Amino acid sequence: MKVYVPLDAAARALGADEVVAALQAEAMRRGVALDVVRNGSRGMVWLEPLVEVETPAGRMGFGPMEAASVAQVFDGGPLAIGLVEDLPWMKAQTRLTFARCGVIDPLSVEDYRAHGGFAGLARALAMSVEERLAEVTASGLRGRGGAGFPTGIKWRTVAGAVADRKYIVCNADEGDSGTFADRMIMEGDPLSLIEGMVIAGITVGATHGFVYLRSEYPDAIAVMNLAVLAARAAGMLGASVMGSGIAFDMEIRVGAGAYVCGEETSLLNSLEGKRGVVRAKPPLPALEGFMGKPTVVNNVISLATIPVIFERGAAAYAAHGIGRSRGTIPLQIAGNVARGGLFEAAFGMSLGEIVDDLAGGTATGRPVKAVQVGGPLGAYFPRMLFDVPFGYEEYAGQGGLIGHAGIVVFDESADMLAQARFAMEFCAIESCGKCTPCRIGAVRGAETIDRIARGDASAIPLLHDLCDTMKAGSLCALGGFTPYPVLSALTHFPDDFARVKEAAE
Predict the structure, then answer these.
(1) What kind and span of H or E run contains 270?
(2) Mind listing the pLDDT tens digit for each residue in 51-101?
């Protein structure tokens, strides 16, 4: 009997390890030979721990499973939810980057190969450098870590730079609230990230890569280190990648927990052993990055998508999406929702579809008041904007940003003045201190919102001016994007600011 139980951090936090122990004990009691595979998560967090049993018809799901209920896995019972691939959540997705996540043993090279692994790298090795660059550019892939910068342009810049050493750096410092896609890939399909980094390296002429991983992800750190060893043993890494004669190797580096190290130049400073503070640009990291050498800095999802593009072709990938937002995006649904988790879909879905249909509304049953998209620096969207298509330019046109595609839902009990203050306080705490608009502006922003809360309406125009200064003058996105949640709260939820004033009067 073969069963799959996730080693994903969310599943483990919900009792997956205890379920495995109970399954093994029950199998021994029944005299059943049990083969337990620790896979990644399918992304349906409300069903975790999700146990899957291999059957001739497909993998039968049981969840959310508890250690006390494992007899159902052997006998059937109310926790049986049917074939996992047939569940509406799974069938409605366009799984490209996450096609293997939750399906394979994350550390099995054989499993990876059997499910399409190495196909992208094999095709890339058969192409010239120019053909590889053209493929990435034609795919329309943009950075999935927040900025949305075209990946092809970044790679071409590094490829054209003249230097004795070049580097690939994977930004795995996933610090935004309500985001977990990077972690899910690293824990559930780490070889796809490694394959993407190898393709990047052989394309731009880099021979070494780093994954900069946040210390708060101990499971991902462990899996990625083992995956690097497995990739090296399989010939994907080393002095001759897949026998091509081209060298590329990599290592895992762990950060110390600073939110600002999600910004690429601050990350590079930390990677070099320096304090994690933002660098002024220019020079760009593509020309003077790690140790002053040309460096590609891409997010986990960006790099893990590269093998898909080379396996299926740029045109097939670009066929998904809207406008300049091509391909798929892993929507990470969290907050006050009935069904939270990861849902990979082509760009273009409306927020209403995501929140009402996929997430099933709020967990409390109260009406949705606001949805924050793009992490703690993302704008708050009211229901009147729920029809805006999910795309970079479409959200920018409404004063918002896609960011890392984290979606956090709030019901009608949320106090938007308090949320605006939290954004300023968060920036003040996490600021690296390099630039004045961020270092001082965030502190003054929290103080100004406190004045508004005490009934001082004259402070509202001052808050607008302060936000304009932070947006225009900050060195990086931390200070530059903090005004997004503040201004969106002021604009779309004015009653939450006026109500306090009326009480004071």
Answers:
(1) helix 264-271
(2) 999 999 999 999 999 999 999 999 999 999 999 999 999 999 999 999 999
Chain-centroid distance, C-alpha 224: 16
Q: Using CA atoms, how far apart are residues 150 and 130, in angstroms rounded to an integer? A: 16
Q: Both tokens of residue 474? A: 């900050």
- On whether the 416-504 domain is CATH 1.20.1440.230, my answer is yes
The sign one gets for the Cα dihedral 151, 142, 190, 98 is negative
Alpha helices in 140-260 (DSSP H): 151-160, 181-188, 190-204, 218-233
| Backbone φ/ψ region at 299: left (φ over 0), alpha (ψ -120 to 50), beta | beta
- How does 219-257 read in b/e, with b if 16+ C-beta sit within 10 Å? bbbebbbebbebbeebebbeeebbeeeeebbbebbbbee
- Work out the pLDDT band at 500, boundaries 50, 70, 90: low
Nearest C-alpha neighbor of 342 from the set 99, 35, 38: 99
Fold of 2-91: Glutaredoxin (3.40.30)
- Domain 109-318: give its CATH code: 3.40.50.11540
Which residues, including other chains, have CB under 8 Å from residue 468's CB and lie 6 or more apart?
A: 483
Q: What are the extents of the domains in the chain?
A: 2-91, 109-318, 321-411, 416-504
Sequence length of the chain is: 505
- The neighbouring-strand residues paired with 168 are 209, 296
Express each pLDDT in 370-406 by its tens digit.
999 999 999 999 999 999 999 999 999 999 999 899 9
Average pLDDT, the chain: 95
Residues whose CB is less than 8 angstroms from the CB of residue 141 and which lie 6 or more positions away in sequence, other chains included? 150, 151, 152, 302, 305, 306, 309, 317, 326, 327
| 469's tokens | 């200064």
- Asked whether 331 and 174 are in contact (CB, 8 A), the reply is no
Here the tokens at position 254 are 């762990």
CB of 197 closer than 8 Å to CB of 212? no
